[in-house]
């Protein structure tokens, strides 16, 4: 086969970039790949999800970026599939499409008061401090400078990230690529207490030890753990005995439970066996009603009916991400994923020819960045195995696709535009003695890409 097959990848987060890499790195089938993203910049949650102070994890973007240096891979940013171009139209330009657009929305708690002012999704708070162009700046710049006590619901790594960012001094964050307005807002934060709620015990928490430990090492925040919260049943003991990572997590919180406060300005209260049942407030949230729970012997927790109240003017719901449907692609509403078999999109029992899926929108929002490499490579293996059976797209050239986008009035950011944005962010960072500062509006990003003028 001489003519390369044309593949569209929808979403330039880690799974999309790993899929592009897997396609372009094999030498059996010639492939040309367009990595399409609705934002003018690539890398999805590596840019807008990984905590800015986790520099080594964020440096994965340098590895992902190298994929755009490979011949045959293009970035096509600022193009929203489903809005700027319907999924059905992609078939005109691409022989196959891989959906890797992740899980961008938050899961809900489903309790009264959840929508009070001051109750926010961790996904939105993270988007704000990472400089996402669609973040609700006004809300966070109003809420954070007027909050003294925060509750973070959940004990996964995202909960740990938002707790750490809220608890750190600006001095501990100033070297990061957060936009200037984030520092300004955090500098004005009067938050003294952050309560983190785990509905099960310390053996059931989903954070990882490295991330957990950081909460106990902050410059101006004490960590407070009530020994009475350290509840273990037989199933927990079994977990601790068989899973080293869980045993390490438990050791960390046990040590914290022996600490006394050292008089730092902020306190992180880590609660276990505690789940929110209602948010109370008059317009804005003021209190969280928390129910004590007990382990039921199967690893789950049930309510005891005993409640207590935590004052809170900021509540961050960090209970997981949720995928969204995309018009023209089957969707499993129960699991919030695109149904698939080995990465081949399924509509009921039928395979949808030419459609593939990888990453969080394939398997749900779990795993670390590296998990997506194996996942994306497996989906690409299915695509490559099907190549002989894929119907050829009638307009499968980069020129035809670019012409269609231009005629539709879509201002796409290509590799050159992204390189220009990258250079502009580094230059902006250098003016403040940092490696990089994130440019945080679409208009400024397009200006940096030389696609709009002042
Ligand atoms: P997660 O690990 O699934 O954590 C969700 C948390 O929310 C759990 O503690 C869960 O408790 C709790 N929860 C769910 N529903 C709840 C409810 N109704 N009431 C109270 N609590 C509730 O998800 P995540 O923190 O959003 O992270 C997503 C993925 O990204 C994970 O795989 C994570 O490891 C990864 N990540 C990694 C890093 C890193 O490596 N540094 C950073 C960020 C994210 P139960 O366990 O009881 O359900």
**Termini Cα gap:** 47 Å
Low-confidence stretches: none
Spatial extent as radius of gyration: 23 Å
Shape summary: globular
Chain-averaged pLDDT: 97
The counted number of beta strands is 18
Structural class: alpha/beta
Instruction: Describe the strand arrangement of the main beta sheet, using strand numbers.
Output: 3-2-1-4-18-17-16
Key words describing this protein structure:
globular; alpha/beta; binds NADP nicotinamide-adenine-dinucleotide phosphate; 454 residues; 18 helices; seven-stranded mixed β-sheet; six-stranded parallel β-sheet
SSE blueprint:
Layout (H helix, E strand, L loop, with lengths): L4 E6 L3 H12 L5 E6 L7 H5 L6 H4 L1 H7 L6 E4 L10 H7 L2 E4 L5 E2 L12 E3 H8 L7 H7 L5 E5 L3 H11 L2 H4 L6 H8 L5 E5 L11 H6 L6 E5 L8 H9 L1 H15 L7 E6 L2 E9 L1 E12 L5 E11 L2 E4 L3 E2 L17 E2 L2 E4 L2 E8 L2 H4 L7 H16 L11 H10 L7 H16 L11 H7 L6
Parallel strand pairs: 1-2, 1-4, 2-3, 4-18, 6-14, 7-8, 7-14, 8-10, 9-10
Antiparallel strand pairs: 5-15, 11-12, 12-13, 16-17, 17-18
Helix pairs in contact: 1-15, 12-13, 17-18
